[in-house]
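Ops channel
N.P.: pipeline sanity check, posting one input/output pair.
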C-alpha cells in the first residue's frame, strides 16, 4: 500500500510530519470497528456520540486546523477516512447540512473569531446547524427572497419567513440569507448571517410529512436581534455566499457515500428480487443492471468531484451533475421498486414494507432539495456546457421595484 509522505509547515515555520497512509488507515479501521453502527440508519443521538468520539480520536474535521477544532490533517487523509467510512452506513447523516454545508462555509468565509467560537462545537457535533434559504415566494428563485435585516446600532433586526428548513427544530444555529438593501438589484443587497435558533423572535413550526416524519420546518422571524459581528462574509455579498453554499450542498447530496463506487439501491432490490423469484425474469434482470450502471456512474462522478476538492478547488457548477444524476436514479428506482418488491413497497404492514415504503416516499425530495431538477439542468447548460442563458428582464431593476413573491411594486 502506498505510504503518504507529506510534510506541512506550521505557523512557526517548522515542518510538521503527518501519519503515513498505512498507519492512518489502520487507525480509521480500528476506530470504526469500535464506534460505527454496522447496519441500519443511525439515530440523531448516535450521530452525536460518533462525532464526539471521532474528535477525541483525532479523526474529527480531518482537514480543518487544530485551532478551530479539526484534526489538522491533509486532504489525502480525508480521502482515506471517507474510503473506510464507506464500508459502513452513514454515521453522521443528520449532520449532512451542518458538516457538508455550514461548516465549510464557516471555514471559508468566517472571521477568525467566528471560527474559534463556532467550529469546534460544529465539528464535534455538540451543535447542529441548519441553512435557511427558501421562502414561500422564493423557492427556485432564491434571489427573490423578501426576509430582511435592518441595522440598529451594534445589531441587525431580522423579520420575515423561511420554509422547508431541514432540522430547524433540532438546530442550535443556522445560516440565513436576508435582504439588507432593497435599493440594489435582486441578486445584490443580500447578506448572510449566523442565527441563534433559540433567540427571542424565532418561531419554528414543523411541516408534517406524508411518511410521518417532520424533518422540515417553517421558520418565522419577528424583530430577531443578531449581533453585527455575526455577519458572515461581506455586507451585501450574500448572493455569492449563497451560491457557494448551494454548490457545497449539491456536492454533499450528489456525492454522499463517495468513499467508493457503490450501488445502494441495487443492493436493496436485488435480494428482494431473489427472494420472490422475480430475478429469473429477464426484464427484471435488465432493470436491475440498468440501476447498477446508473449508480456506478454516479459514484464515479462523485469521486471525481471529491478529487477536485482534494486538489483545493471550491465546488463549482459541476456539482449539479451528481445532484441531477441522483434525482434521475431516484425516479428510476421508484418505478422498478414498485414492480420488483410488490405489496411490500406500498403496504405499511407487509414484511419489510415500512422501511421500503418510507424510503420510496423520501426519494421524492431528491428532485427538490438543493435545487429542482429544472434548476440543475439550467446550471449545467449555462455554466458547464456554456449554452446561452435564458433572457432576463429584471437584471438591472432595483429589488423594491419588482413584483416578486408577495411584493407588489407601486
Amino acid at each position: 500500500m502506498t505510504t503518504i509522505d507529506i510534510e506541512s509547515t506550521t505557523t512557526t515555520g517548522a515542518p510538521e510530519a503527518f501519519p503515513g497512509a498505512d498507519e492512518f488507515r489502520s487507525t480509521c479501521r480500528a476506530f470504526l470497528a469500535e464506534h460505527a453502527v454496522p447496519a441500519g440508519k443511525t439515530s440523531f443521538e448516535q450521530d452525536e456520540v460518533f462525532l464526539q468520539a471521532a474528535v477525541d480520536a483525532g479523526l474529527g474535521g480531518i482537514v480543518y486546523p487544530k485551532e478551530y477544532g479539526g484534526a489538522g490533517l491533509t486532504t489525502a487523509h480525508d480521502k482515506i477516512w471517507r474510503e473506510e467510512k464507506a464500508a459502513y452506513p452513514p454515521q453522521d447523516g443528520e449532520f449532512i447540512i451542518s458538516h457538508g454545508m455550514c461548516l465549510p462555509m464557516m471555514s471559508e468565509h468566517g472571521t477568525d473569531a467566528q471560527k474559534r467560537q463556532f467550529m469546534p462545537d460544529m465539528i464535534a457535533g455538540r451543535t447542529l446547524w441548519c441553512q435557511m434559504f427558501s421562502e414561500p415566494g422564493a423557492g427556485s428563485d432564491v434571489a427573490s427572497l423578501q426576509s430582511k435585516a435592518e441595522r440598529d446600532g451594534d445589531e441587525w433586526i431580522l423579520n420575515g419567513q423561511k420554509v422547508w428548513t431541514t432540522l430547524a427544530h433540532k438546530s442550535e444555529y443556522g445560516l440565513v440569507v436576508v435582504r439588507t438593501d432593497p435599493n440594489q438589484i435582486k441578486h445584490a443587497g443580500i447578506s448572510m448571517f449566523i442565527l441563534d435558533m433559540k433567540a427571542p423572535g424565532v418561531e419554528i413550526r414543523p411541516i408534517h410529512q406524508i411518511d410521518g416524519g417532520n424533518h422540515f420546518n417553517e421558520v418565522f422571524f419577528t424583530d430577531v436581534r443578531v449581533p453585527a459581528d455575526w455577519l458572515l462574509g461581506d455586507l451585501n455579498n450574500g448572493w455569492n455566499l449563497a451560491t457557494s453554499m448551494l454548490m457545497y450542498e449539491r456536492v454533499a447530496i450528489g456525492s454522499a457515500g463517495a468513499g467508493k463506487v457503490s450501488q445502494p439501491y441495487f443492493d436493496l432490490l436485488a435480494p428482494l428480487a431473489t427472494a420472490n423469484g422475480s430475478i429469473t425474469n429477464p426484464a427484471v434482470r435488465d432493470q436491475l443492471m440498468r440501476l447498477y450502471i446508473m449508480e456506478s456512474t454516479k459514484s464515479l462522478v462523485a469521486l471525481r468531484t471529491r478529487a477536485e476538492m482534494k486538489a483545493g478547488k471550491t465546488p463549482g457548477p459541476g456539482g449539479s451533475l451528481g445532484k441531477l444524476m441522483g434525482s434521475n436514479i431516484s425516479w428510476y428506482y421508484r418505478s422498478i421498486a414498485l414492480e420488483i418488491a410488490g405489496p411490500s413497497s406500498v403496504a405499511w404492514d407487509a414484511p419489510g414494507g415500512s422501511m421500503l415504503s418510507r424510503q420510496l416516499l423520501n426519494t421524492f425530495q431528491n428532485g427538490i432539495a438543493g435545487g429542482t431538477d429544472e434548476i440543475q439542468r439550467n446550471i449545467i447548460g449555462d455554466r458547464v456546457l456554456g449554452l446561452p442563458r435564458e433572457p432576463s428582464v429584471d437584471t438591472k431593476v432595483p429589488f423594491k421595484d419588482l413584483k416578486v413573491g408577495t411584493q407588489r411594486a407601486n
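N.P.: looks fine end to end. Strands lie at 7-9, 15-17, 129-132, 148-152, 155-162, 173-179, 190-196, 202-207, 216-227, 231-232.
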